[in-house]
């Protein structure tokens, strides 16, 4: 799916799913799920070689949601892709549901790795990328990290490793919305300048608007063309993107919307997208 309008339509459906499932669960992380929706949409519906009918296909591309608390955006994308019935989304965080608060690879098809402990995703992705090289496979590994997550030291150890081994089959995204649970990232523990830091660690760095599909797709093309270096796409995003009263509001990092707020959010999304 390369049509920008179709991707935008799919992203709106994913945002609606996010709000509705978190409201039903009365628990979850809407802000960072909404900010990542366009990136995840582009990956699953334009970029990645995956097959929901054969989720363990040997040469499939891998996706690591390092910011595991944003699980709703991944669950919705998987359901929209056809990995499981969308009715299952209503069971988010319920006892016995495979849709845990953080992704669990043993409970749901399409989940490559259980995540939630921040800072570990890039290390896992390095292992997947090295495995592809050793086994002669052509699959690529994609990683989505949060900007607050970059405060973890393991991230930078993994950054060195990927560059050292010239893992050009890794493409990582930073969902750079400048908000984490305790407030603004630059006030909690500043991580800028991200572009210069990743370049200094030996990465090919691309900066984009994380809500512009043309820029996302162009960056993914450039990443695929880059040889001898891993690629980091720094995507400037808005926490709570798509819902006016959630946008850039730290309070919606990990707070579920009420039924009334959810109804208002759905109306906003439908009005803007006209679907």
TrEMBL record:
One of its GO terms (molecular function) is transferase activity. The keyword Transferase applies. Its cofactor is thiamine diphosphate. Pfam families: Transketolase_N. It comes from the Bacteria. SUPFAM superfamilies: Thiamin diphosphate-binding fold (THDP-binding). PROSITE patterns: TRANSKETOLASE_1 (PS00801). Residues 11-264 form the Transketolase N-terminal domain. PANTHER family: TRANSKETOLASE N-TERMINAL SECTION-RELATED (PTHR47514). Belongs to the transketolase family. This is Transketolase. It comes from Cetobacterium ceti.
């Amino acid at each position: 799916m390369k049509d920008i309008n179709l991707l935008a339509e799919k992203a709106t459906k994913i945002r609606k799913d996010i709000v509705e499932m978190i409201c039903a669960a009365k628990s979850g992380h809407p802000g960072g799920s909404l900010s990542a929706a366009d990136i995840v949409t582009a990956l699953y519906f334009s970029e990645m070689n995956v097959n929901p009918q054969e989720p363990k296909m040997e040469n499939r591309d891998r996706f690591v949601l390092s910011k595991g608390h944003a699980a709703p955006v991944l669950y919705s994308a998987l359901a929209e892709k056809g990995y499981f019935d969308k009715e299952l989304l209503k069971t988010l965080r319920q006892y016995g549901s495979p849709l845990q608060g953080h992704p669990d690879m043993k409970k749901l098809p399409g989940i490559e790795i259980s995540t939630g402990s921040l800072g570990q995703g890039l290390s896992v992705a390095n292992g997947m990328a090295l495995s592809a090289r050793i086994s002669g496979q052509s699959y690529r590994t994609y990683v989505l990290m949060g900007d607050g997550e970059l405060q973890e030291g393991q991230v930078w150890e993994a950054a060195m490793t990927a560059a050292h081994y010239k893992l050009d089959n890794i493409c990582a995204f930073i969902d750079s919305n400048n908000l984490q649970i305790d407030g603004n990232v630059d006030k909690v523990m500043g991580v800028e300048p991200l572009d210069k830091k990743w370049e200094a660690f030996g990465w090919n760095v691309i900066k984009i608007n994380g809500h512009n599909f043309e820029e996302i797709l162009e960056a993914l093309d450039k990443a695929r063309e880059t040889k001898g270096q891993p690629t980091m796409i720094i995507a400037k995003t808005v926490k709570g993107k798509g819902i006016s009263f959630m946008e850039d509001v730290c309070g919606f990092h990990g707070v579920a919307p009420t039924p009334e707020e959810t109804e208002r959010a759905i109306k906003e999304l439908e009005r803007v997208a006209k679907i």
